[in-house]
Amino acid sequence: MLEFKTPLKDMRFLLYDVFDFPAHYKLFPSEDVVDADLIDSILEGGAEFGEKVLFPLYMSGDKDSCRLEDGHVITPKGFKEAYEEFVAGGWTTLSHNPKYGGQGLPHSLSAVFSEIMGTANWPWAMYPGLTHGAINTIEMHGEERYKELFLPPLVEGSWAGTMCLTEAHCGSDLGQLRTRAVPQEDGSYKITGSKIFISSGDHDFTDNIIHVVLARLPDAPEGTKGISLFIVPKIMVAEDGTLGERNAVEVGSLETKMGIKGSATAVVNFDDAVGYLIGPPNRGLNCMFTFINTSRVGNAIQGVASAELSYQGARKYAKERLSMRSLTGKKAPDLPADPIIVHPEVRKMLLIQRSIAEGGRAMIYQAAKIVDFMSHGETEAVRKAADKRLGLLTPILKGFLTELGVEAAGHGVQIYGGHGYIKEMGMEQVLRDVRISTIYEGTTQIQALDLLGRKIMLDRARELDAYITEIKAFCGKYGPLSVGYVGLRMKRFTKPLNSLVRQWKWTTKRLMLKASRDRNVAGSASVDYLMYSGYIVLAYAWAQIAEVALTQLEKGGDETFLKGKIQTARFYYQRMLPRAIMHHKCMTAPPESVMAIREECF
Amino acid sequence: MLEFKTPLKDMRFLLYDVFDFPAHYKLFPSEDVVDADLIDSILEGGAEFGEKVLFPLYMSGDKDSCRLEDGHVITPKGFKEAYEEFVAGGWTTLSHNPKYGGQGLPHSLSAVFSEIMGTANWPWAMYPGLTHGAINTIEMHGEERYKELFLPPLVEGSWAGTMCLTEAHCGSDLGQLRTRAVPQEDGSYKITGSKIFISSGDHDFTDNIIHVVLARLPDAPEGTKGISLFIVPKIMVAEDGTLGERNAVEVGSLETKMGIKGSATAVVNFDDAVGYLIGPPNRGLNCMFTFINTSRVGNAIQGVASAELSYQGARKYAKERLSMRSLTGKKAPDLPADPIIVHPEVRKMLLIQRSIAEGGRAMIYQAAKIVDFMSHGETEAVRKAADKRLGLLTPILKGFLTELGVEAAGHGVQIYGGHGYIKEMGMEQVLRDVRISTIYEGTTQIQALDLLGRKIMLDRARELDAYITEIKAFCGKYGPLSVGYVGLRMKRFTKPLNSLVRQWKWTTKRLMLKASRDRNVAGSASVDYLMYSGYIVLAYAWAQIAEVALTQLEKGGDETFLKGKIQTARFYYQRMLPRAIMHHKCMTAPPESVMAIREECF
Asked: For a Cys-Cys bond, which of A433, B78, B557, B597 suits A567, CB 3.0-4.6 Å?
């Protein structure tokens, strides 16, 4: 049976020991000093809320699902009450601007809090997640009068937000969207169109929902360069902030989905609904870019969260469930059989789950640090550099960690055997829920094109080179002459990592050269390239973890905990990292093997 | 939206051109000559039944699910009527013994028919599948009086069968089972115990259900060597075959599962139920071995069937759905965007699906031929040799093809993007349905131990060597000096295949040597070894397909069809086969990376 305890020890180890967040926060002057005490109180508050309030609703939320009654979405039993508790705890305000009622804490802290909520109950956590996205978009691009009107209740949590992007015929190709916005004399717009796959598109949590909507102005050019961004409230808001009439926004239907059933996925119809333009006309997609990078880091968390939740369920079962005897003789002679954790293949699945959950978490935390620099960096140069680095890492995090999250959840089902396939145990729900993560906010294939096409080739791999230089510097600390307890042992990681990043660099150059002659080279290499890159980034994360664990172990730290880290790192290098080689081989194969086959042959 | 057309052209290409089944059938004298006409009429009848009767119930069966009413299982709407049509068509009798009303046709034909049913509607097809298993078990081990009593109505389809093996605390560890069988004065037994995960454990298709049950005699030794096999009818059967009272067999509950919801998975309770011993006392598990090999081939079909069904749905969508423009310029300038099949990564997913569906089908057909030799081979030596070869291939087919079936269904969801996650499209159902296939009838991990431990190490790799010799002989036809249209082109396949099988041979020897000192070597290598072997066997299948396709192409055959085969083979060798290298690297890693980590570190 699924269970959930916030992995506080693992989280603290990363936050304090591996990445030293307290030192990081000293770089950002804020009203409150973000020290270990404050971090701890957020971790503990999150753990309490996640374990006691959210997790108990995880499986019931799947069973109840959302339903549509008289045009209103009813969320699963208990979801609304949990939201009220969430708002009462002040958790909605964490990282938002104090000007609009936020606590002004660094984004990274809010990401850590989101991770806890998302692990406890991803479908529930999507509601505040969407509000978060709407707030950031309005704050970044809206006129001040809109910010003053809409942001305080959104930050406070008394209203919620959505992001209404795609339409039935679009998918990721937003250039095709048709929703129209007609300017009115009072400066507002009348919005008409139908948006699909709108997460939190309607619900019973709040009095109002503020939709952020992409639409076309009457004179807009075709394609992606003719899209503008609008605020469309579900209930009209007077200038003094009081609620008025219903706006012409209706829920057309609710999708019946494979998973995340507690999260409402709606068709939202706008029929001459009143909306307000934010950002410059026709530049709506550009306005979304920065948002998209940070929001995709949020999606990447789903991979880590699902791996963690599935691992916790599987680990418990593997220690309790008795089946067969160990290949090397009875391990529990007094029991009718050994616990299945003695079997190598069960351990391998657990270790893969751990590699993904704990290593993936490290990848997220490093990216979260960069988000802090992006928004609160002292100079424009620092902020821009952070934006570039995050831009490079985002598609890797989103694409790679969600793919691995699906894999991890699959192992969780497998460890339970037949019981994993039964709803009662919850393991299959994790798999169904995480399956969306490789699709929404841009599929893995879209992430891969973003990575190789935009973030690397358009940039001529400059940012990649800088990142590789950073990793090489890390490896350089443990060169051939490195000695001592840590020095000797780290070479097991830095040696293969160093040759991998060298290969990464040269293969990228070669791909760019070939792709300049045949664009299908990039197209047919892209997902393999993304996964290849992901395995290297994860290897870097595990090397960093191993370095700290070895250092602490030498000083006599908690042996069980630290050896667990080091041995998982070893496992990752020996039994997962070979996948990088495989992707390398696939991505350097000639594109003809994919493109030569004619369409009618399918 | 999911659709299904029996891939008759692909099937005929394998049956006639690649594997020459008509020639194969000439080796088995039977009442009817099994020629191309008879094969065709079975293919066409199967296609008609699958497309018109079974497939229309596929998605509705998932929605309706099975339900329990007053202790009886009600199957989804239309399932019973489809079964009646199935029986009326005489399809239940195909490969069974004419002595009991069967048509005595080769097993391989029945496997091909099952594949069509399983592709059209796997959950439905499980009902006759279980009856098939019960018939084979009773025929192989039952006394003649039981055969005469139970087999004719089972073969005719007026009764159905089940296999009741596991119990709540057992899983695959049947040595732990507790169901008791107490001998009675009349030679029958009273069976008491609770069996779980019983597919077709109850339903409304037939007047009676014959359960094949594993139980312990009072004096039975502990563990696997104290298990016997019994027939336990749901309704008692008089000596003249008429039905009597209800036996003490009850459905305790129905499982609510991730998928295969149209298939009833029941807890079946026996409470002093009357049963009849078949096979020697305490040898029940041994009696099951032969059955298990053939039934696992049946499970392997699920991987192929799901890949085919998902591919058909994805292929259609990829040609229709418009999104983005091709990287190399507009391909459909008159449309608002290009069909997504122009995108390399969409093609890659389609080609992976095809590699699995069409190559996996070839693996199944080759195994089906061996099953024919096993049951109808002319001499004991031939039958034994076939049994050995099938024993080697079974865990590879079952473990590898079901894992790949899950992967293929996942790509089908992914190609649909957000729509793939919506129930309405059916793509996610294929994924949920196939997910059980890597679990039931022995998980992939169990298959892997069976392969490496029993089928290879216990045999000292003799059968593997013989199989490798066969593949090397195939490769040998296209050595360095081979010329001509086919000869030159085949080297692209035979050269890498030949080096892989050489590596397979030597790596196996090395693993055996190391495992003789440390059994964890085998344990921690096993799943990687299974997958590695699977990719090689699939490579062999694709090389055989390519050989025939090239030969026909040279003679001016159907270019679209044949080039499709050859290019898919190329794709497989360039973009999937590198996975074998990765598994090789993982399986030769030291077992310490898996075993050194202490249990409390998890």
From this structure: B597
